[in-house]
Backbone:
């Protein structure tokens, strides 16, 4: 199956700092989503972004499908941004996702 | 709020037992997928149901089975539980391309 690699695996930031999370995938995809998993396990949708750029408040994402990578930008980080960020990709049309191993983000005050 | 709810939130079972996990999807979402997330790992696809029929399966043995009902609810059944089945089980529903996840059921097998 498709391989999904996320980097960095762990990230510690001071509150207010900016960060970039990366997701590389090994084959072409039809669907790519970014999720934030909170400490209780809930996966929160951040972006549905198979290609192009989107912004939502302090977060933005860019997917370059032809080069098989996606980036998630977090600006002016807050302690509530802490958690694990997952990139998930899907090759067909049925939401059968392959997930990366995640980036664990800790934002300290 | 994703509109996808799972029950129970936590569960402890003994090795060899059987377990049923439940998921209630958003109204109209005709596709439901189940994932297993081991500690420190990303979720792994178990299987998917579309309009009450299995529509894809990951690398999981037949003792993992499921059902989808007309009211957009679904079940994940696991027979002959093993210690390695201890994990967070996530349900996701979708109508189009974007999937929405429930809060998960944390299963511990002792």
Residues:
């Amino acid at each position: 199956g498709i391989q999904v690699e996320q980097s960095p695996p762990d990230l510690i930031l001071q509150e207010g700092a900016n960060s970039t999370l990366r997701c590389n995938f090994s084959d072409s995809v039809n669907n790519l989503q970014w999720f934030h998993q909170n400490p209780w396990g809930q996966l929160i949708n951040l972006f549905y972004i198979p290609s192009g750029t989107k912004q939502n408040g302090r977060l933005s994402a860019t997917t370059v499908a032809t080069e098989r990578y996606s980036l998630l930008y977090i600006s002016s980080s807050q302690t509530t941004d802490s958690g694990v960020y997952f990139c998930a990709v899907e090759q067909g049309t049925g939401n059968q996702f392959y997930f990366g191993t995640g980036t664990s983000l800790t934002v300290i005050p | 709020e994703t509109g996808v709810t799972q029950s129970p939130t936590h569960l402890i079972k003994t090795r060899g037992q059987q377990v049923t996990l439940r998921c209630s999807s958003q109204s109209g979402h005709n596709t439901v997928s189940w994932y297993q997330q081991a500690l420190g790992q990303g979720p792994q696809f178990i299987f998917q149901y579309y309009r009450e029929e299995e529509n894809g399966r990951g690398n999981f043995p037949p003792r993992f089975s499921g059902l989808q009902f007309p009211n957009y609810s679904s079940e994940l059944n696991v027979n002959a539980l093993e210690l390695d089945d201890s994990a967070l089980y996530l349900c996701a529903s979708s109508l189009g391309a974007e999937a929405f996840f429930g809060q998960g059921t944390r299963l511990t097998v002792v």
Remarks:
- The two ends of chain B are 32 Å apart (CA to CA).
- The CA atoms of residues 35 and 45 of chain B lie 5 Å apart.
- The mean pLDDT of chain B is 93.
- Chain B is about 0% helix and 55% strand.
